[in-house]
Amino acid sequence: MAMSCDHPDLLPLDEALARLWAALPAPASSEVRADRDDPAADLAAMDGVALRSEDGRAPRRLLGTLYAGDDPAAFTVTPGTAVRIMTGAALPAGADAILPVEQLHETEGQIHPQAIPEAGDHVRRRGGQACAGDLLLPADQPLNVARTALRAWVGRPLPPPRRIRVAVASTGDELVTDPLPHQIRDSNGPMLAALAHALGADVERRPALPDDPETLAAALRNPGGVRILMTSGGVSMGEHDHLPAVLKDLGATILFHKIRLKPGKPMLAAQLGDLLVLGLPGNPVSAYLNALLFLPVALAKLEGRALPDPWRRARLAAPVKHKGDRPLLHPCSLEDGQLHPLPGKGSADLVTLARADAFAWIEAPGQEAGARVRYLTVM
Amino acid sequence: MAMSCDHPDLLPLDEALARLWAALPAPASSEVRADRDDPAADLAAMDGVALRSEDGRAPRRLLGTLYAGDDPAAFTVTPGTAVRIMTGAALPAGADAILPVEQLHETEGQIHPQAIPEAGDHVRRRGGQACAGDLLLPADQPLNVARTALRAWVGRPLPPPRRIRVAVASTGDELVTDPLPHQIRDSNGPMLAALAHALGADVERRPALPDDPETLAAALRNPGGVRILMTSGGVSMGEHDHLPAVLKDLGATILFHKIRLKPGKPMLAAQLGDLLVLGLPGNPVSAYLNALLFLPVALAKLEGRALPDPWRRARLAAPVKHKGDRPLLHPCSLEDGQLHPLPGKGSADLVTLARADAFAWIEAPGQEAGARVRYLTVM
């Protein structure tokens, strides 16, 4: 029996997101330790000359040049000598300071300091960042780009990242390529495929599934190697909304079904073996917003990244009324840093969705103009 | 001659970003018009029965069921009859309202309304969203996921999106796999490749380039079909910083070289035929931050998306001092919504970069605790 009234016992969005996050495995990540002193030698921090600070402003004869990567053993700095040196190069024996190129004159192979160098000037000291064996990052920290670099830095590079495979399939007998008036085209399929692509997934778009439990079950039993299947439609309480029952029949673990969000109440997430099923509502705005909320969380967990926070905050330029006990995501344009509510026509309104910059989070009974609310940016 | 002091005439970051944005082409995008009325027929907005409102609470005999996509010509609703109908299905002739399933009782093929239906109740009227020919979206609007869906909806789907090809190459003779104390490993290559991958590009990591103008020129002349080449190093004023001169020799258009940002002063962007070169500084923090600022802008423009805004705002939990006339991006952790400045060791400090959640924008002479500043979230 369909129930269209709101229920206070529907799962709040944050709990649904937390369940999804908790259910998915993250790749293990080991601690990161310095494999050697960092820097491994005293290095020039600027372009200039490497010299003995104790000889003050005395002119020095240039012995040669050290570039980053050069072996400094080629030179030894003694009283009256110096070595031209580039940022990142190791200091030659005898030198204890860098005099930057701006602080010296040079004539015929001699440099004339215009400032008095002090020991350690513009030198990155060996071990100044870390000593060999130091813990640089504990185990099981979320992965990010900088941490990828740190692992490469200590000689333990990660394999090149791969994209999570995501399949997208709409459901519904009404979806056809050349629709009669009582039929429609599938816009959710291209939409969800574009979203998954933009979020970095390797996307496979599948033909729309008919409203038939057998076909649906077959598609779920044979996911074709994808990690996530996003469907739209078939999760509500209509007579053709077969997905929840089919998933249960197949022995899937339902992570949640029905959440406290408008639009998006029938949202479903389930695990069937290694397959995560995100069962999105069929209405375009609802499918879009729920995919925007749930897919980034699933991808981040599976890729070992931190839980994404999609929310920003801004003021409403005009009031938004809201009846009902589910929080509302209301379409807005963003102008001058303010959220301007758009006169949307509900969860089937693809035109307003296409014009929106953001969706503002509105709790009942609504928000006044000037209220600071959180919002999602559209992608 | 190297200049390490700050210059007020360095290009501000926002101008550099604007130049990059302006220099790159965006794919053309046509206007979107409704190809037919939307909805193309009167549709049920809820599960229930389709009936004649003027017959009020009188019981009706059920003629059958209409699912979404069914041809409604199968039924005609006459006085005393009704048709069970699912959300999205077209109304049969004669019916002018939907009575939701919650507002009726059903016994032996008859329904008994528990409420008085009114004409138009729970009906999405033909053309209620748009009429055939209506302009739904003007030409040359930035592309996004929702607009992809809208185009599919009106029968003008876009081809599946493709990933921009980006090559990544570090430069520097000091980069080796098994470094001696005066050498280092290449961490920028994996870092920039991971960033480009995370931003949705199709990434090709190339071997580090030596500090040699000929090799550099050869690499630039033969980009191997990539649209963007990101290099790190070789853009400063050291004797081995060959990239700017090599680009000029090849006839490249230098979009900018040197910006008002710390770290990141030597940042360079150039166009060489169809190749965009992002010449990032060599220090890891500097390379990271400049890639995080510039690459998303380039990808967005080339993909036809809107200019991304990476900035969020939060309060500083502690003061940050800053000398010098370039704005500083200072590493912070994010806790309880506040920015906690980290004691970073400058632009070579990969460890602090790996621990940071965000980089706060600090203008000289610094910011007090409690100041609201803009920040970038690390990826």
Automatic annotation (TrEMBL), chains A, B:
Gene3D superfamilies the record matches: MoaB/Mog-like domain (3.40.980.10), MoeA, C-terminal, domain IV (2.40.340.10), Molybdopterin biosynthesis moea protein, domain 2 (3.90.105.10), Molybdopterin biosynthesis moea protein, domain 3 (2.170.190.11)
Cofactor(s) in the UniProt record: Mg(2+)
Reactions the enzyme catalyzes: adenylyl-molybdopterin + molybdate = Mo-molybdopterin + AMP + H(+)
UniProt KW ATP-binding keyword: no
Domain (MoaB/Mog) ranges: 167-301
E.C. code: 2.10.1.1
Top-level lineage group: Bacteria
PANTHER family: GEPHYRIN, MOLYBDOPTERIN BIOSYNTHESIS PROTEIN
Functional summary from the UniProt entry: Catalyzes the insertion of molybdate into adenylated molybdopterin with the concomitant release of AMP.
Name this protein carries in UniProt: Molybdopterin molybdenumtransferase
Species of origin: Geothrix edaphica
